[in-house]
Design brief:
The protein has 212 residues and is of the alpha/beta class. 24% of the residues lie in helices and 26% in strands. The chain is built from six helices and eleven strands. The strands form two sheets. It has a nine-stranded mixed sheet with strand order 2-1-3-4-11-10-9-6-7. Strands 5-8 form a two-stranded antiparallel sheet. Strand 1, helix 1 and strand 2 form a beta-alpha-beta unit. The longest helix is centred in the last third of the chain and has 15 residues.
């Protein structure tokens, strides 16, 4: 049986090279990976893919508009036609209103700006989360929090939604694709997950395909 193909968007730093490498390492075991640049974000190109994935990175609304002004309708059409959208951190922000706007009623905010968030500034750390009710510490860098508009897969310490699945759209605020090299700081060295979070990402991605 052929492995599903993921089109992985890359445009450093908006779609971070390190995040892309992490997703390739985590998902290439069970999926074929093709890199997509913005010129290839057309429905004609994407319709041959089962999944399009948008990784973490940096960027503001104005920058997003400049990058994707010719591709917004194509990405939306891909999702409307049943193609899977996988967004991690910045890629998950991009699924929300004002961006690709892929889930009706979706609200996306910065977790660090929530009044009851235990993380109050943007830096490399781990967040205490629950993934299907199991406590874990997952790599976090200014990720989003969502309202409950689909199946909740993960929650932050304050109960906010960290990861959700709505039909063929999957969004994750933390970084399950994180690599060991990301844990180089002294306060992170004993937090490396040993690849276990890659397995969570693999299953999450497979579940999106089952929901199509």
């Amino acid at each position: 049986m052929a492995r599903p193909t993921i089109g992985l968007f890359h445009k450093h730093p908006h779609a971070s090279a390190e995040c892309c490498i992490g997703m390739i390492k985590a998902l290439s075991v069970s999926h074929r990976i093709q890199l997509l640049d913005v010129r290839e974000c057309t429905y004609r190109k994407m319709r041959s893919l089962q999944i399009v994935a948008f990784p973490g990175g940096v960027g503001e609304a104005d920058e997003w508009s400049q990058i994707f002004h010719d591709a917004v309708a194509d990405v939306r059409l891909f999702a409307q036609k049943g193609g899977v959208y996988l967004g991690i951190c910045m890629g998950a922000y991009w699924a929300g209103p004002g961006y690709f706007d892929l889930i009706k009623g979706l609200e996306v905010g910065q977790y660090i700006k929530q009044p009851n968030s235990e993380i109050k500034r943007s830096y490399a750390t781990t967040a205490d989360i629950e993934w299907y009710g199991v406590p874990r510490q997952m790599f976090f860098w200014d990720g989003p929090v969502f309202n409950e508009v689909g199946e909740v897969v993960g929650r932050y310490k304050n109960g906010g939604v960290m990861a959700l699945r709505k039909d063929n759209i999957g969004l994750i605020g933390c970084h399950p694709e994180s690599q060991e090299s990301w844990y180089g700081k002294k306060y992170l060295k004993n937090k490396w997950h040993g690849g276990r979070h890659w397995e969570l990402l693999q299953e999450f991605t497979r579940s999106l395909l089952r929901g199509v």
